[in-house]
Structures are given as structure tokens and as C-alpha cells.
Amino acid sequence: MEMVFRWFGSGNDAVQLDQIKQIPGVEGIVWALHDIPVGDEWPINRIAEVKQQADEHGFHIDVVESVNIHEDIKLGLPTRDKYIANYKATIKNLASVGVKVICYNFMPVFDWTRTELYKKLDDGSTAMFYEKAKVENMDPMELVDEISNNPDFTIPGWEPERLKSLANLFGAYQKVSEEDLWNNLKYFLEEIIPVAEANGIKMAIHPDDPPWKIFGLPRIITSQPNIRRFLQLVDSPSNGITLCSGSLGTDPNNDIPDMVHEFIDRIPFAHIRNLKRYDNGDFIETSHRTKDGSVDIYEILKAYYDNGFTGYVRPDHGRHLWNEKCRPGYGLYDRAMGIMYLWGIWDSLERSVNEKELAVLDKKLDY
Ligand code: CS2
Ligand code: MN
């Protein structure tokens, strides 16, 4: 596996590149141009700027997260073709500086959804929390107020500008069923995957978070059968997934190690994080350690290891520790510790296999 770390850009992230540099084994940053309005082409000079900053720190910029999808594409409106043309241009621009993987998602209106961004845990740290009953009974506008009015940073997927017309957006989705969303996704993929193929790019869709319907909006990248269906929409190595253990792990029916085994050839990018599920459907994000949450991080890494995984991996959301001021889920410390936990498991998997092989060899030599 190749370790990478998400960075929101200079002036847009409390975490600095020289801090990331001190985390063992990180080779690249996962980045995006967060200020470009969704649907616009990413200008080459702005892309080059990030490449330059990464180069100065010896990081690669192979992975982009996310090039977000304009709502008109998800809605299947006639105007989608203009945005798809921009998307293709962005793919080409990114490929021209050496980008290999583009992460994106196909969730209507919102990105990840939580009811509390900084919920206090028993150890005094804070983490993102989802209260199921609250989401079921709340007006989405309340959530938008809470999440998008974060004073320090705008949050991808919760841009106040875009969500100003929330009522219109919800109105437009009234007519869009799950099957329509599948069709709109297929239309998009049929257009862009050939461009990705021609430019050596792997597209990697991120699962829906949480992987169920919220506020009556359809969600489809939610489960193993649905991911199987997704991969068949366009059967190409350039049509892949970002396997996010945290998003899929909120549903106890999702067997993530099994998904790793089944989809391994189509996973260019892995997100690894843990969370604790409660019986009432609530969940809270935890440290990466298997014992701290409901997701078996050890088994997931073992599945990647056993399949000879060479793709990109990043620690996903972490807790906020030691009073750090940071983007929700994206502090420095817990993600850095998460990386060391992942390396600890990976290195010992590697060792134990090598040692077993050596023992077999020794035995052979004895005879
Ligand atoms: C989240 C998302 O789970 C995650 O990684 O932080 O914001 C994610 O970046 C997007 O859904 C990917 O498009
Ligand atoms: Mn993720």
C-alpha cells in the first residue's frame, strides 16, 4: 500500500505540509481545488500551483479528492452535457501533471452527514457524531446552518453558496427515483470513463455516507450488491471505487473485508477509519484502533495484504485531540496516530509472512 494524507490546501487547512512530512511513510497528498465552483473546469495554472507546493515537500499529487459532480448531472438535466464537458477537460488537465486517481461521489445535495461535528468523548477528545432519530425528524436547513456556517473553513459538499437554493434542489429531486439516479450515473460514466482511460486515470467513486437514504433523497453507493452493480455499469479498470471503511462501516450488514476480496482489482484508493455503532442506528467516529470501534481494521488490512494491494491508502476522519483547532474529522494528531496503527498492522503482516516462508525454507535445507 502507498500511504497518502488529505490536505485541503494552503490557507484552507490548519495542517501544514511540513507537519505532514513528519508522519512516517507518507508519500503523497490527497488534494483538490476547493474554491473552484462545482461544475467548472479546473484551470491548469491552479493545478500547477499545488504541484509546485507538493514538489517542494517531496510529495506526489497522484490522488485528487474530490472533483465534485454538478447537481444537474445527478439530476439528469439537459444542462448536464455542459458540465460533463468541463469534467472531461478537468480530467485531461489533471492527467497532464501526472494525477492517477480521481475520487468523487454521487450523493444528491449533501456529502457526509453528521448531527454533531465536535461531540465530546469520555477521554476529553471530540469526534463527529450521527444521531439517527435527529436526522429523521429534522429540517435539513437546520443541518445546513450547523455544518456550512463553520466559521473557520467551508466544508466540501456543504458550501453555503450552493446550498442557498436548498428548497429548489429538494424540489428538483422530488422527481428523481433511485433508478433515475442509476441511469444518470451510467450516462455520466459512459461519457467520462473513455476519457479517463485515454489519459491513464482511474476514477474512484466514494460510497455514500451514511449509506442510506436521508431527507428522502436517493442514495445508491451503499452496499456490496450496489457496488457490484456500479462496477458493471461500465466495465473498465478506469471505473473503480474508493473503498471507505468508515462510510460503509456504519451499516452492520456491510462486510468490508469481503468487499476488499471481491473488488480488489477495482480499488485504486482506500480510506480507512473506524467508528462505533449503537443499536439505535447512531454512530460516532473513533480512533483507528479495532478495539475502539465496530469496524475490524485489522481484518480489513489483512484482506488488502492477502490480495497484494498496491493502491493508495489514507487514514480517514479522526478525532480532534489536545484542543487542536481543525476541520471536523481532519485534525493532524489522530490521523497521524491512525497511520502508525495501519503501518503497525501492515509491517507485522509482512514480517509474519516472510518469517513463515523462511521457516519453510530452513526446514527444506535441513533435509
Ligand atoms: C469524507 C468525504 O469520508 C470521507 O472521506 O471526508 O468528504 C469524501 O471526501 C467525499 O465524499 C469524496 O467525494
Ligand atoms: Mn472516506
UniProtKB/TrEMBL annotation:
Q: Name one Pfam family in it.
A: UxuA
* Keyword tags: Iron, Lyase, Manganese
The record lists the membrane-crossing segments as none
Q: Which GO terms describe its molecular function?
A: mannonate dehydratase activity
Which pathway? Answer: Carbohydrate metabolism; pentose and glucuronate interconversion
What is catalysed by this protein? D-mannonate = 2-dehydro-3-deoxy-D-gluconate + H2O
- According to its UniProt record, this protein's enzyme class is lyase
EC no. given is 4.2.1.8
Q: Which cofactors are reported in the record for this sequence?
A: Fe(2+); Mn(2+)
**What is the annotated role of this protein in its UniProt record?**
Catalyzes the dehydration of D-mannonate.
Please report which protein family the annotation says this sequence is part of: Belongs to the mannonate dehydratase family.
Can you name this protein? Mannonate dehydratase
